[in-house]
Amino acid sequence: MTFVVTESCIKCKYTDCVEVCPVDCFYEGPDFLVIHPDECIDCALCEPECPIDAIFSEDELPSDQIAFIEINAKLADVYENITEASPPHSEEPQFKDVKNKIKFLNIDIGTDESKSNSQSIESNKIYLFDSGDVETNNQAFNIKDFSFNKDQLLKSLVIEETVILSIEPQAHHEWTMKIMEFLQENKFNVIKMRTLKE
Ligand code: SF4
Ligand code: F3S
Fold it and tell me: For a pocket test of ligand 1, which of 46, 60, 61 has the largest count of ligand atoms closer than 8 A to its C-beta?
């Protein structure tokens, strides 16, 4: 069992939750925090700390927030660990009362390209566009046909090298998750995500 950060946190990030976690299992992206499901000890201390009730136990999630179980699990592997509170998101005043914020989830974690060799970056760039089109190293297909193109995608990548996944802002989050899942299944252990500018 784990606790899960849900949609309300997007572009708010009050971070009160972080201060109380005894095992430091919160991870931060530019617009959102997640809880690492393998590290959370289910102590429930964080839940009442969030001023906008964004945190739920996995078994008490509202039905429209179920997708956040997977979103927390996947993003925890690519976001940075956060152990101290920080000021809220810069756009928090405009977003604190907004509902259905998943479309604003910006998963740009930046790219520390200095840690990777330039050849692997060149070979292992994947672009996911708003239309669902995916392009990578001379290969192109649409994510809606993803189940038919896994071999094609795999052939275009250098196994065990860093993958840079660049995503247009309106691309559906489920599409990103499909690619992430595929990459993790195929042992691409270092995956960096960034958002393409509008
Ligand atoms: Fe951390 Fe406890 Fe919250 Fe899990 S339930 S994230 S261990 S404070
Ligand atoms: Fe997000 Fe609430 Fe923590 S807004 S950062 S879950 S305090």
Answer: 46
